[in-house]
């Protein structure tokens, strides 16, 4: 009786010891799991903080560019300046200068007149020219016209220039400030929506520069890229995954495709410069060449994503199609490809989003050129949004800082829209089995 009681107590002690060891181990694992969750949540939170800081910085610098300062002038369309036989080449800037002189008759010296004229953008003359050409009957009349102000005045009114600073530290001198205050008191200065930013191409003057030319260039370039990369990439993926024999040659092709996906984008720019420009003689700085270069860059990404989508289709789908008498081509076209299409579209749009944000390969083929006109075709000179941002970021004027951030906002909006499209298409065509 004593021996059995002793053995039972020993077993109880051993089991208690084992439970204590297990509990201590569980406690350590639970603590490790809590630390891991904490580290993961901290990483996500830190990423969101940095991302928020990036977006806040870009938006805070860029949103003022969506507004522009205008000055109200009483323009007399002088018949002596606007001759009917030369309306397109008339000196419209003389009308702007005459209106400014009439508002400030005390300005007499040549230097003061030049400073007075600098309050108004050179684009005012083009605006008056468009008014006269659209309606020649205004000749001989006087009209109140809101014309764009110079970028220095725009920066002053947006708070980027301190009026109380020393004259040497300001872009506008004391006399110009007094004229601005006179215009403000007469309610002749106003900030409005900057339509030029959305409708014009590039310009040396910040107040006349717009993003529309670069947006059209990006659209034409991506249209060429999508038209070539999607069918070629999907066809290559289908052949390699469904029809190609498994041998050393296909293994070599697969290795090269995977390696090309990691090649720096500027290498594709060098390839485009050597082949498309120097060998084939295609036009420099054209969306056609840009699309060809970006096609080479995005093809590996699309092929890899398409092959992964094909591999995700269950083998039973193939076996069932072949079992009811379908040929291999019918099996792929009618059964496998529709199921793999969502993943293919997602990979394609992600590749296109990467192409939209690329600038290095396009710099190599000359799309860094200063392009004022809006491109109307695939062979017209053009630039793209990333290159336009690069050009404006390199400009010394303070107003181009706003334009750079505003163009970045437009580019981010395009990228977000493309990624949202990828998600919508995936949800729309996705099938579950």
How are the SSEs placed, and which strands pair?
Blueprint: H1 2-62, E1 67-76, H2 92-103, H3 110-117, H4 123-134, E2 142-148, H5 151-157, H6 174-185, E3 189-193, H7 195-199, H8 212-243, H9 248-260, H10 265-279, H11 287-311, H12 315-323, H13 328-356, H14 360-364, H15 385-393, H16 399-429
Antiparallel strand pairs: 1-2, 1-3
Helix pairs in contact: 1-16, 2-4, 8-11, 8-13, 10-11, 11-13, 12-13, 13-16, 15-16
Task: Report what the structure shows.
The chain has 433 residues and is mainly α. The protein contains 16 helices and 3 strands. It has a 3-stranded antiparallel beta sheet. α8 runs parallel beside α11. It is elongated, with a radius of gyration of 33 Å.
Instruction: Please state the overall shape, judged from the principal axes of the Cα atoms.
Output: elongated
- Along the chain, the helix and strand elements come as HEHHHEHHEHHHHHHHHHH
Low-confidence stretches: none
Strand order of the largest sheet: 2-1-3
CATH topology of the largest domain: MetI-like fold
CATH architecture field of the largest domain = Orthogonal Bundle
Mean pLDDT: 87
Q: What's the domain count?
A: 3
* N-to-C span: 65 Å
Task: Provide a count of the helices.
Answer: 16
Query: Which superfamily, in CATH terms, is the homologous superfamily of the largest domain?
Result: MetI-like
Percent strand = 5-15%
